[in-house]
Amino acid sequence: MSTIKTVHLTAKQVDGFKIEAKARNHAMIIDQPEAGGGSDGGPTPLEYQFASLASCVITIGHIIARQRRLPVRDIGVDIEGNLDTEVFLGKSTTARAGFTGIKVCVSVDADMTQAEKDQFVADIDRRCPISDNVHNTTPITFVVS
User: pTM of the entire structure?
Assistant: First the structure.
């Protein structure tokens, strides 16, 4: 039996590149750096993608640790990725608009061997919805009004 959860977010342009997004009772500001034409009033969409991935890895890690009663004290995540900005700026069509790769460095503070930590992180990756959406093609439907 599966339990389906619907996640919903709305977003609107506030000023220039500044965007306000709302999820449940929470508001988030998304912006571009001043050098990119924004006012640097918040993280960029790409930084929010990394924040989503990092926080999902940490959350799922703590869920697994509790379920298995693992001696995990802390989980930290450092993420980086490269992309060709010429594509999203409309100057090139020869590459993908997205990242060419994403490197996720996970530090696990726990009384575990390296092999146990490696398996723990592999299990996190397998269960993390954000990681799954990055690894796999998820259909997106655009409805224009």
Answer: 0.93
